[in-house]
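User: What would this chain look like folded?
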Amino acid sequence: MDGTTYSLLERIFQVVFPLLAIVSVGYLYARRVHTDMSVANRINMDVFTPALILSVMADKSFDLALYQPLAIGALCVVLGSGLLLLPLCRLIGIAPKTFLPPMMFNNSGNLGIPLAVLAFGEQALPAAVVLFLVENSLHFTVGMYMLNPRVHPLSLLRIPMILAAIAGLVISSAGLALPAAIKTFIDMLGQIAIPLMLFSLGVRMLSIDFTNWRSGVLGAILCPASGLLLAVAVQQILQLDETQYLYLLLFGALPPALLNYLVAERYNQEPQQVASIVLLSNMASLIIIPLVLAFIL
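Assistant: Here's the prediction, encoded as structure tokens.
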């Protein structure tokens, strides 16, 4: 093994190991102690993650215009994945409402944000947050509409993460600076979000159901495949700079978000099948993500 190959493997290990270690802690803890993460997850979505978003987007160095092409690319990847895979639903015998949301709405929060930071450094955090906001906003609008056409678009304004993003953009655009004590307070809250996301992912791994393993395997292959294909196609049009293109490739390779299962359960849209797709895809990402990192690093 030459020095270049060893250096690459070492870097991939340094990126993947901390994520896998925290997920493993969550999994092993939940095996020993009955663990209900519903309250912690709700607090994370309502308090810690909004604080992380506000902390990043209120920073004076955050320039929304700089990330506009990346945001457009993410939008194309999310919506394009649904359109690309829609014809396959009939062939594989899975209802579009069951199969397409996990293929479209990826794990850009629990996995995407920490993965981007570990792979590219702290300078990738604003881009990772933008990608997360695009995916999450589409999930709470297009995704909800797919399962419940009566959902109101203005309901988006009741989501703490969206409100935090708006507040952050207002502060950043106005050239304001948060008082040091308040900034430290918000930063500390935000620092809780990523480890808690990963721990929760580990706990959720305990509930994997192999009954619907065929759809799970299909999802594990088609989700990153469609995301990467769309990212490459979008690049031909948008011509993102090299760094943002790498961010978009990593975004396209991410597995389905855990939120897909929660939404499917809420609307009784074959939740067990969705759970199998989501969780088996996240397990498969332990192989797929290192392969993608080997290509982009």
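The chain has one domain: 3-296. If you want, I can go into more detail on any region.
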